[in-house]
């Protein structure tokens, strides 16, 4: 329920009576008044000056006066430039707290009947999940939860990249150098085990390449291309892919294995299934740690041929055009893009053709109105092209496609490289943050009376809050640097700082009799810290709605921080259990309870659990 809907309605009535203008709810922006100004809520007037033909100060005086006369909850106003600052009545605050306390799932919106599909994670089966995957997964999962809070039905999916030359490199390395070892025999997670062989392949390939560079064939090539001695290192650096495809024995074996896979060779398929199963078990363990899940998995091995039949449909519609060599293209130059191939001359499809087919089958599977792709911003152009293609093909969901792009994640130590084994492994990072949380809590010594199991549960909650919040508080499109130590700062803009506000609330109720009066009255005076806390609680439904419109969890994260910060201030400045009257104590306990409920509900949208102690 949106408490400010009555104020919105009163303002719209004022616009109609004073200026004979109809205004939509989207046009009226109501914010908490900034702390440096007098007032409780502010209505922004700049956007109405053209319609009314009056300056914002004049408008503010007329509309402020109208609200004071016609809306009993507004008892005063002032106008600062284009901002109408409103002072709310005592009754407004007590009614608002009562509404928040008595509204089930306060802040969450009613069912819209709309169905969304969101894709995230989409890992490769030749390596474990890493820090970049963590940002992707946490972003996708949080957006899915926010969309549910906005009343939408959500289907969560991933596309597993389980085929191709990279997968064959891991398979070949295990065959040649694995000595029959398995994840079980080594006591290692399956995705780590397979990822080690991907790195091993690269190491063996580099060794082979280094030896080849000293061969007579390489020297002849350098002479033929007239490469000067000082340019040889750069030449061999650029020549690496050509060497892999045309000269390398390991490259030849990997390509042969890929060809066998594509032809359905039983022995190759058996090895592929075995190694993929090891990886899936490892992925599953990491997903469980992060507490994320999927409703349906799509596999590239099953979707890479999809979309070919769409080419014929596109040709019939005149969307695609066939060249003399048999290749099929689409011309997107009129939309500011280029010509794009969708079918090669040999009849094989390209990656974007597969994406077209996958989108179509998803619509067939679920009949969604919107599809959201959580993919790094380096794929911006790819999705721009894909969405334009689906639009021209006349797909019914084409207007509801969205690329939820995000910036890369760096560490304070720099960038990551998968093939060189310098990737920051997701499991290692999770463990590092939890270990840091354990060490910090041990220093404070506040959990000594709990069992080891209870302590570990709290350490896990603190560690995951640190990791998830630090990543999700950054607007998705921004590149970011993750700092494990900074993420745990109890005084900074962190998950543990917010958890501490929730823990304080639990502590208050443990020290009280735990009972709240059901009376709807309140104290004679409501203090400023109480009003500031209530203003944020009142705005929670609008924050949830805005986060859903923008597909942006940082909106929720920043709200949680602001609410926790205002609660800490309230805690220090206002006597709660020691309040002077029973009415004050009850009102403040209700305010604490509502703040705790909203903090817990909002942090849950980020995938973060709240501990009772820390």
How is this structure best described in words?
The chain has 614 residues and is of the alpha/beta class. Among the domains are: 5-88, Gyrase A, domain 2; 164-296, no CATH class. Helix content is 55%, strand content 11%. The chain has 24 helices and 14 strands. It has a five-stranded parallel sheet with strand order 7-6-5-11-12, with helices on both faces. A four-stranded antiparallel sheet has the order 1-2-4-3. The longest helix has 25 residues, at 266-290. The radius of gyration is 30 Å and the shape is globular.
Key descriptive features of the protein:
614 residues, alpha/beta, Gyrase A, domain 2, 24 helices, 14 strands
Gyration radius, in Å? 30 Å
Structural class based on helices, strands and sheet pairing = alpha/beta
Report the mean per-residue pLDDT as an integer. Answer: 93
Oligomer state of the chains in this structure:
single chain
Considering DSSP H and I runs of 4 or more, what fraction of the residues is helical? 55-70%
> Which spans have pLDDT < 50 for at least 5 consecutive residues?
415-421
Give the biggest sheet: 5 strands, parallel
Distance between the termini: 32 Å
Main sheet: strand order = 7-6-5-11-12
Quickly count the helices: 24
Number of strands: 14
- Taken as a percent bin, the fraction of beta residues is 5-15%
**Tell me, what's the shape?**
globular
Helices and strands in order:
Blueprint: H1 5-19, E1 30-32, E2 41-44, H2 49-52, H3 56-70, E3 74-80, E4 83-88, H4 90-102, E5 115-119, H5 131-149, E6 153-160, H6 165-177, H7 183-186, H8 190-212, H9 216-224, H10 232-238, H11 240-246, H12 249-262, H13 266-290, E7 296-299, H14 300-303, H15 308-317, E8 321-322, E9 328-331, E10 339-343, H16 351-366, E11 370-376, H17 380-392, E12 401-406, E13 409-411, H18 426-444, H19 452-472, E14 480-482, H20 484-487, H21 495-511, H22 528-550, H23 553-573, H24 582-604
Parallel strand pairs: 5-6, 5-11, 6-7, 11-12, 13-14
Antiparallel strand pairs: 1-2, 2-4, 3-4, 8-9, 9-10
